[in-house]
Specification:
94 residues, 11% strand, binds zinc ion, two-stranded antiparallel sheet, mainly alpha
């Protein structure tokens, strides 16, 4: 039996469903992803989840603003990405 996501209306099976404390279901794939992983979906109701997601969407710019270190432009990012590529990439093409 299929559930329906209370937020986006998508048909979801049991494994795709995040059930909320008030009995509503949301899809893990889209709507749950919008919120933070640490958000307590199991004990939240639909209203709380919607508010949380709205807050996340609205707050994204603020998060970027606060967590991207000020005064350290792209040079640092590029160097860390280069070193990360060495660590993470399984293929050694060169
Ligand atoms: Zn959804």
């Amino acid at each position: 039996m299929a559930n329906k996501c209370a937020i986006c209306g998508a048909e979801i099976n049991l494994f795709q469903t995040q059930k909320l404390a008030d009995g509503n279901c949301i899809c893990r794939k889209t709507c749950r992803k919008k919120g933070f992983k640490v958000y307590d979906y199991v004990h939240a109701n639909l209203y709380g989840v919607q508010a949380h997601i709205a807050q996340v969407e609205r707050g994204t710019k603020l998060w970027d603003h606060y967590f991207v270190p000020a005064g350290r432009p792209r040079t640092r990012r590029r160097s860390s990405r280069d070193s990360a590529r060495h660590c993470l990439s399984p293929r050694t093409s060169d």
